[in-house]
Amino acid sequence: MVANETAQERKLRLTHEAQNGREAEELLTKFGDVWITKAGEKTLLDLLKAETTEDLLRVQATYRAATDIYGKLKMAVRKGKKAAETLHEEAMRNG
């Protein structure tokens, strides 16, 4: 619970987290595995074409950005599922 958060604010925050999680899961379902696989393939091709240290650093940064986005989407899914579970539990408790 966030400090000084009212029950209504908590419910609203959890609702937003759950929605963000559903949207992230939809993106991963549509594009996730294919997208990250293609990013990996492109990285390998770019590494083969790299001629300078700067090229290698650029390829590394691009791949790291792609994997970071993928990781953030996965984290949003987990956080959203946890928020949805918490909302459900609170709704069951409060009738």
- Whole-number average pLDDT? 93
Number of helices: 2
Terminal Cα separation, in Å? Answer: 21 Å
Envelope shape: elongated
Question: Percentage of helical residues?
Answer: over 70%
Beta-strand level of the residues, as a percent range? under 5%
Q: Structural class, from helix and strand content?
A: mainly alpha
Low-pLDDT residue intervals, each spanning 5 or more residues: none
Give the H and E element order. HH
Largest sheet: none
Total beta-strand segments? 0
Global Rg = 19 Å
What does this protein structure show overall?
The protein is mainly α and 95 residues long. It has two helices and no strands. It has helices spanning 7-49, 53-94. α1 packs antiparallel against α2. The longest helix has 43 residues, at 7-49. It is elongated, with a radius of gyration of 19 Å. The two termini are 21 Å apart. 6% of the residues are buried. The mean pLDDT is 93.
Descriptors:
mainly alpha; 95 residues; elongated
Short structural summary:
With 95 residues, the protein is mostly helical. It has helices spanning 7-49, 53-94.
Present the secondary structure layout.
Blueprint (H helix, E strand, L loop, with lengths): L6 H43 L3 H42 L1
